[in-house]
Design a protein that fits this description.
42% of the residues lie in helices and 11% in strands. The longest helix is centred in the last third of the chain and has 16 residues.
């Protein structure tokens, strides 16, 4: 079969640092991967094409790239699966990271995010027998997060990092969860407090699900972030806009059967936090001009009692 690739190119040696697109057509085996196609192009057609790869077995995480807009490990992405009828494949470097050349990105930002969460055990004692023993059950709970191969696909497609480079990122937060849940670590409460209080921490995730969709190893970083939020709340870290936002959302829907958007914004900011409330004024004015300002007095859903009954049933089951 023929692979039809449209590759985004970049050469830092070119004046102006402009990017351009280059199209390639190569004959490949039906079971060939996108990486096989790119290597064939580099070795037989265009030796200037830069890409990164190593194991070719989805173990090392080196070959993360965007294929048709989504980050993937191209060593495990077969051409026939993404272009069964010979459609054009759009290949780009991973997002939210500095492009070194063509499809190669710098992972400096990625690893600096990992370093922010202290990705190592911090025990409070030296074991008598020279090793820290953990139960099998406790380690099985960590297997999902430990499957991470640091490929950066989740960071590439994170919608928060597109607009806020201070966000710690899904990979680092999944790594943080791995250590907060490890019974050998003694800094669980301290870790949770930092992740809860720090700008760019657990409350900045927008739950867009992109990291879950693109993770090639099923780590599900967003799920780990949600578990960190629950753990932080259980540990008593409730004086944050993130927690206030969650609590307001919960109470609003329970009371009215729908979301009171005005109160949600005020509760999240904090009624006594004047600077943060003033920050909402331009947003409110813009919403008013566009006819998007929510009502100051919330409307109750016609079936709000049914919604409350649903809440009561769930709360009864969990108590």
């Amino acid at each position: 079969m023929q692979a039809n690739l449209k590759v985004k190119r970049f050469d830092p040696a070119d004046e102006g640092g402009k990017t351009w697109w280059q199209e390639y057509k190569v004959d490949v085996h039906p079971d060939s991967t996108v990486l096989d196609s790119l290597i064939q192009i580099r070795e037989q057609d265009d030796g200037t094409l830069a890409l990164r790869c190593a194991c070719r077995a989805s173990i090392c995480g080196s070959c993360g790239m965007k294929v048709n807009g989504d980050a993937k490990l191209v060593c495990k992405t077969r051409v026939v699966d993404v272009a069964p009828d010979g459609e054009q494949l759009v290949i780009e470097p991973m997002g939210n990271q500095h492009v070194v050349r063509d499809l190669v990105v710098s992972l400096d930002t990625f690893f600096s995010q990992i370093q922010r969460v202290d990705p190592f055990l911090q025990p409070d004692h030296i074991p008598e027998q020279g090793e820290y023993i953990a139960s099998n059950d406790s380690m099985e709970n960590l297997l999902t997060s430990m499957n991470c191969i640091m490929c950066g696909c989740c960071v590439s497609d994170c919608t928060v990092l597109e607009v806020d480079d201070n966000f710690i990122g899904p990979a680092a937060l999944a790594k943080a969860w791995r250590f907060t849940e490890d019974p050998r670590d003694s800094k669980r409460d301290e870790r949770l407090k930092v992740l809860n209080d720090e700008a760019g921490g657990i409350w900045d995730c927008t739950r867009c699900m992109k990291c879950v969709e693109v993770c090639p190893k099923g780590v599900a970083p967003m799920d780990r972030i949600m578990e960190l939020r629950e753990s932080a709340i259980e540990a008593g870290n409730t004086n944050t806009p993130g927690y206030h936002h969650t609590e307001s959302f919960y109470n609003s829907v329970k009371k009215n059967g729908r979301l009171d958007e005005t109160r949600l914004a005020m509760d999240s900011a904090g009624w006594t936090n004047i600077p943060r409330l003033l920050d909402l004024v331009p947003i409110g004015i813009a919403a008013m001009r566009k006819g998007k300002l929510p009502p100051l007095i919330p409307h109750k859903s016609e079936d709000h009692k049914k919604v409350k009954d649903l809440y009561d049933n769930v709360e009864g089951e969990s108590s």
